[in-house]
Amino acid sequence: xxxxxxxxxxxxxxxxxxxxxxxxxxxxxxxxxxxxxxxxxxxxxxxxxxxxxxxxxxxxxxxxxxxxxxxxxxxxxxxxxxxxxxxxxxxxxxxxxxxxxxxxxxxxxxxxxxxxxxxxxxxxxxxxxxxxxxxxxxxxxxxxxxxxxxxxxxxxxxxxxxxxxxxxxxxxxxxxxxxxxxxxxxxxxxxxxxxxxxxxxxxxxxxxxxxxxxxxxxxxxxxxxxxxxxxxxxxxxxxxxxxxxxxxxxxxxxxxxxxxxxxxxxxxxxxxxxxxxxxxxxxxxxxxxxxxxxxxxxxxxxxxxxxxxxxxxxxxxxxxxxxxxxxxxxxxxxxxxxxxxxxxxxxxxxxxxxxxxxxxxxxxxxxxxxxxxxxxxxxxxxxxxxxxxxxxxxxxxxxxxxxxxxxxxxxxxxxxxxxxx
Length: 421
Ligand code: SF4
What we know:
Blueprint: E1 2-5, E2 10-14, H1 18-33, E3 46-51, H2 56-72, E4 77-82, E5 95-98, H3 105-114, E6 122-125, E7 135-142, H4 153-157, E8 161-162, H5 165-177, E9 182-187, H6 202-210, E10 217-220, H7 230-239, E11 247-253, H8 257-263, H9 269-282, E12 287-294, H10 301-313, E13 318-323, H11 341-366, E14 371-379, E15 382-387, E16 392-396, E17 405-407, E18 411-413, E19 416-418
Parallel strand pairs: 2-3, 3-4, 4-5, 7-9, 9-10, 11-12, 12-13, 16-19
Antiparallel strand pairs: 1-6, 7-8, 14-15, 14-17, 15-16, 18-19
């Protein structure tokens, strides 16, 4: 679509976690509502990057992108925010908004945009936000004070701060009223959520969210295991009649007690087993994914085997395997028992292969089972969408985009369940 406008056009690129994605989406929506055209990067007057510093390669990726844009589009204004803002050295940027000032992002960017010279009205292809997303994100909290040995997040995001439950409940109602059928609940460490006024925890908040008027479902984002009463949480999902997606993503990182201790995680394998046994008995068929770190300092070959055997023992439907990457400023970076890089990569590969086998086995089990899917973008004669369990599904294109439909997959192609009618 081409529209005539005189406000500067803006493009966004977001790196890192779901929380970063949700923050940037909120800013995009706010600027779009104020009449700023949101466009593809090549067409933008202003390019906003929301950065991630979780690993050093992540910071390098942001720096590489910004240098390339500076060289290829010298007149484009560059705005950078997020955790890597202070780590980008001498790259010529027009506006830097470090993480601790992100609450000021909108007023600072508005002031920056209004100070730009007026634009000659012209034709720019706009990407209409409403056509890009079927899911909305609700940010419950930010920050973490757990200081795991490998993690830079508490150093850059600061102490946990939670959003008011009252505001969240109202926002959820508005999002459903605006047509979103899935709301992803996200945060830096969701299990630390506490309503500032009442001290209400995540489980109680979820109970209240289940009663919010409107049609749609909630998906719980990445959740640290064994911090809350996971058994109560799993029962709540099971009894929510689909209001809470039967999907859990746990950043488990390792299943070996020695490594978990070195990582300064607050659980051991026994507690993980208890959580997963409860999932299997109370929520059979639940989507179950996990993060794993391969080759953390102190991980012996035996410890790597322990994690591998653990992954094989449970019906995981997905995995993010991260080869350990030294992050300066974290205790783990100084541990003496670093694993050689080649060995880290080899362990990550094995873990990915094992997790993939598990995933495919679970997806095959889903063939012939009714799934609740929200169809998304059309690609020719088909659409893709995600089930409540977070299985990727391919459907005929005549299924309505953005509406929740019940379908029965009849086949599996790669990692995608195929629905033919
Ligand atoms: S719980 Fe650990 S891994 Fe998660 S954000 Fe906090 S410090 Fe990082």
